[in-house]
Amino acid sequence: MRSTMYERVLVVLDGSASGERAVTWARELTGGSGRVVHLVMVCPPAVSVRNAGRTVAFVDQLEDAERATGFEYLDRVARRLREDGLTVATEVRVGSLIDTVEAAARDLAADLVVLSCPAARGLQCLSRAGLVSRIVRTISAPVLIAGPGCLRSA
Amino acid sequence: MPAVRLEKDTMNLKTLLKRPAVTIEEAAPATAARELMRRQGVQHLPVLRDNELVGMVTEHDLLAAGPSSVPELRAYDWDEALAGLSVSDVMSRRPVALTPDTSVADAAHLARQHRIDAFPVVDGGDIVGVVTRGDLMAVLRGVLEHGHPTGLGHVLIGTSLRAGQAGALDAALRLAVAAGAAVTALHVRPLRSWLAGVEGATAEPVEWVERIKRQMADKALGAQGREGHVPELTLEVAEGSIVREIARRAMELDSDLIVVGTAHRRGLIGRVGKTIADELVQVAPCPVLAVPRGSEGADAGR
């Protein structure tokens, strides 16, 4: 019996293909059925859209739309994991990547955090500097990261 | 590809049993079976009479007992149609039961030959799980895509005697044991050419390696106690850039996972500093599991 894997796994998704690779790893490392996988999609905070001095799209409208799209995507991913007998919860959070991951991991009391880290460009490089150490420092749980050089799924 | 990655001869159903079996009594109402399947997210239930296996009931059996062959109508009137039925009315009798030691190949052969969707797995009279066609297909996928049935054929641990090491070793060995993976521990010494000729400098790595070997042996014995077998362990020593050497060796060994320990850094260094794991993630050919100090024993499940 594969009893020695992780039990409360937080998987951070961004809608990318590399993020979905992280999902397959979460499935392998949970040891399968009966364990809890919490899928979180992190959306950057929205900025209202103005045109000719008037606001044409408000922040809460845009974030609601992001949430709806996010849940639709997460439900699709969750369905595949549920077929393997995993208990899956989904959530869309708005905020910066690291702060949101930290908060979600604390709330869930995750014993493993899984995320992908695609190749960063420009300002992203700055925001992701020390990503692993910052998350590890805050939540004290192992972190599994599929980096840009990691081409395989589990 | 290392020879250890293909384990078709040793792969048995025990490796596929991921959760305790969900069973139901034959006298239970058929609606209870349906509800249990929905709640537990399963499609097959072994059926018991006085704790003995007497049948299997599947989602398909329940659908077939419904009022219509049109799926939407069947679902609509399901509860009413099943209301007067018990599990024994709809189950398949005399299921083909296998043991945890049955090989995956034999199970696949039986599934194909007898068109069986799921096998109850019985160990000494106890139902210990259910293996489905889907589980067998997952093994096939693992072998085809990665050369290993569980997708985790080789784990590379970046070792050191620094803080966080014990937790990383522990996590790597537990995962390797659970997935049937081989483990290579790689100890990378930083280049210290300036130490050449300094008395005692060459003795240091020998002592380190011996200590790491002892740590690995202790952890492996612990894993053996919990799981009944130990993973194949290899220790290697290299010299150079830690990140580069680990990434290079992971590529050569076709590793599926790299495990490294990482220490908490507080204050300003913790906020701005990078760890080996941070840099390794950028160049590693496979995922990196960073295990923080102090997580041993609690990190890799129980």
Your description of this structure?
The complex is a heterodimer of chains A (154) and B (302). Chain A is of the alpha/beta class and 154 residues long. Chain A has one domain: HUPs (Rossmann fold), CATH 3.40.50.620. Chain A is 43% helix and 25% strand. Chain A has five helices and seven strands. Chain A has a five-stranded parallel β-sheet, sandwiched between helices. The longest helix of chain A has 25 residues, at 59-83. Chain B folds into two domains: 3-144, CBS-domain, CATH 3.10.580; 154-292, HUPs (Rossmann fold), CATH 3.40.50. Chain B contains twelve helices and eleven strands. In chain B, strands 9-8-7-10-11 form a five-stranded parallel β-sheet, with helices on both faces. In chain B, a hairpin with a 2-residue loop joins strand 2 (44-49) and strand 3 (52-58). In chain B, helix 8 crosses helix 9 (203-227) and helix 10 crosses helix 12 (276-283). The relative contact order of chain B is 0.13. The model of chain B is unreliable at 1-8 and 297-302 (pLDDT under 50). At the A-B interface, helix 1, helix 5 and strand 7 of A face helix 7, helix 8, helix 11, helix 12 and strand 11 of B. Strand 7 of chain A pairs antiparallel with strand 11 (288-292) of chain B, so a sheet runs across the interface.
Brief descriptors of the model:
heterodimer; A: 154 residues; alpha/beta; Rossmann fold; two-stranded antiparallel ribbon; 5 helices; 7 strands; 43% helix; globular; B: 302 residues; CBS-domain; 5-stranded parallel β-sheet; 4-stranded mixed β-sheet; 12 helices; disordered N terminus; disordered C terminus
Biggest sheet strand order of chain B reads 9-8-7-10-11
Strand order of the largest sheet of chain A: 5-2-1-6-7
Overall number of structural domains of chain B: 2
CATH architecture of chain A: 3-Layer(aba) Sandwich
Give the low-pLDDT segments of chain A. Answer: none
Structural class computed from helices and strand pairing of chain A: alpha/beta
With helices defined by DSSP (H or I, 4 residues minimum), what is the helix count of chain A? Answer: 5
Helix content range of chain A: 40-55%
> Considering DSSP H and I runs of 4 or more, what fraction of the residues of chain B is helical?
40-55%
The percentage of residues in β strands of chain A lies in: 15-25%
How does the helix and strand content of chain B classify structurally?
Answer: alpha/beta
Radius of gyration of chain A: 16 Å
Determine the number of helices of chain B (DSSP H or I, runs of at least 4 residues): 12
Order of helices and strands of chain B: EHEEHHHHEHEEHEHEHEHEHHE
CATH C-level category of chain A: Alpha Beta
Q: Based on CA inertia axes, which overall geometry of chain B fits?
A: elongated
Largest sheet of chain B, if any? 5 strands, parallel
Average residue-wise pLDDT of chain A? 76
Rg over alpha carbons of chain B: 25 Å
CATH topology of chain A: Rossmann fold
Can you summarize the main beta sheet of chain A? Answer: 5 strands, parallel
